[in-house]
Amino acid sequence: MKSKCLTEYMKPNYAREHLLSDQILSDNHSSERSLVERVLAEDNEACKEFIVRYKRLIGHIIYRMVDNPADREDLCQEIWIKAFKHLKHFQFRSLLSTWLGRITYNTVINHLRKSGIPLYNDISVDFEDSETELHYKNTAVTSEQIVERRELSAEIDTAIRKLPEQYRLIITLFHLDGMNYHQIGDITGLPEGTVKSHLFRARKALKKILTASLKGEDIYQ
Amino acid sequence: MSSQINNHISDEEIQDFIDSNSKASDAGVINHLKQCMMCRKRLEEYWQLYELLSYEIPLSSLPAPTIEKIVSITSAEAEAFSQIPGESYTEKALSCSTGGIQTIDVLKQNTAKQSADGAFSSDIVLKAVWKKAGILALSFLAGLGILFLPITLSEILTSVLQFVINFSARGYSYVQLCIDFIKTNLDIRPAFLILKQIVLNIPLSLVYYLISLTITVTIISVIDHFIHQKLLRRR
Fold first, then answer.
1. Cα angle: B13, vertex A65, A108; to 5 degrees
2. Pick from B41, B50, B56: CB nearest A11
3. Domain range holding B167?
4. pTM higher than the cut 0.90
5. Distance between B164 CA and the closest CA of chain A, angstroms
């Protein structure tokens, strides 16, 4: 174990960090309002800015919840068309990212239901403590580790795909999009407590899956 | 102290500690971690997991919208909707007046036949109709004047037929519009929306037409009745 101060293990506080102060929230809203107004006025540049600003969030949700690449592309177009079509009804009661996340989530869920994919299936791994440790190298970004990082990224991606769709989404929104429990709850329609427990269970299961998959692989030793 | 070591902290507590959500119990967790090697290892593993989870998904793997395509589809849709019958007041008004004008034409010929003695030409009749139409329209309920109908059923059917032909011609032009959209945008969804809108508008347009037909027929037939009475009195 590296000699690391325990407090260094504490992530920047996601939950509190994202409880935006009124000032930041109001700045966000006014910037969003101005963008939305420009989009509604059919300003093409604003439309492009709107897409560029939020395409990663929408892309993350679709990518994590849908396995078929062709379906992902179709859903992506459908969601953006929906977003533009309904933008005039956006009331600024939530962040634009939450609103877009909800549209994306609902569309993806409908797609999954039509495809007959169960949404709340239990994770197939058990939660007993593993005897094997995870041995990752220090993952700080250096030029020689880019390839390795890509490989690790693919590894984690494969592991995440073994989780139920709901867990995949919550993990992604929390870790990649920096959303807090409240925002994730707004998107998925789940209470904050449920979001938190899903997140914990998902990480625990992920740790278990990764431990099993990385066991004995030299590249991580 | 040994009992504290034996009571290992749970996975949830470790995650909470990393997320910094559990300030109140942090002190206890830190104390335990200082003494328990096993929990420190689990903490390390979770920390590494957090690191992995924060790796960005390569942009090339994410589904991306074709910006130009989205913008062109949405603006084309907006344009198409503005052209659909029943979507604007002007279109509705036009639809009504088409039926009304056709009916007036039929009645004009009919009234001209009735005033064959030349005392009233069809133009005079129409002038009288327009003069009194405003006042009379207020006092007539739709359908009441049907009792005084001086026109034949075949004439009404002709008028209805004209409306149907007119509507079909328009429908054809909207179908053409849909085909153009499909060809231009390679996307069938806007075309479906337009077709859906047209289908939904058929009953609405028919209702408008029937109302306009009934009101026009009522007004003109009553006026016609008065004119006829006047002619008879003169004779």
1. 125
2. B50
3. 67-234
4. no
5. 33
**Is A55 in the B-facing interface, judged by CB distances under 8 Å?**
yes
How many angstroms separate the CA atoms of A137 and B37, rounded? Answer: 20
Neighbours of B69 (CB within 10 A): 15
Of all residues in chain B, the one with the smallest CA distance to A60 is: B62
Structure tokens at B128: 């009288």
- The ranges assigned to domains in chain A are 20-114, 143-220
By CB atoms closer than 10 A (0-12, 13-18, 19+), residue B203 is exposed
Question: Is the domain defined by A20-114 classed in CATH 3.40.630.30?
Answer: no
Flag whether the ipTM exceeds 0.90: no
Cβ B51–A72 below 8 Å, yes or no?
no
Could you read off the pLDDT of B135-190 as tens digits, one per residue? 445 444 444 444 444 455 555 666 666 666 666 666 666 666 666 666 655 566 66
Residues B172 and B116 in one domain: yes
Asked if B20 lies within 8 A of A139 by C-beta distance, the reply is no
Mean pLDDT by 10 residues, chain A (221 residues): 56 46 56 86 83 90 89 89 86 88 91 76 44 45 64 82 89 90 91 91 90 58 36
Cα distance from N-terminal residue to C-terminal residue, chain B: 126
Compute the nearest-CA separation of A66 from chain B (Å).
10
Q: Is A6–B47 a contact, with Cβ atoms under 8 angstroms apart? A: no
The reply to whether residue A10 touches residue B61, judged by beta carbons under 8 angstroms, is no
Binary contact (B58, A153; C-beta < 8 A) = yes
Q: State the Cα angle at A77 between A72 and A81, rounded to 5°.
A: 145
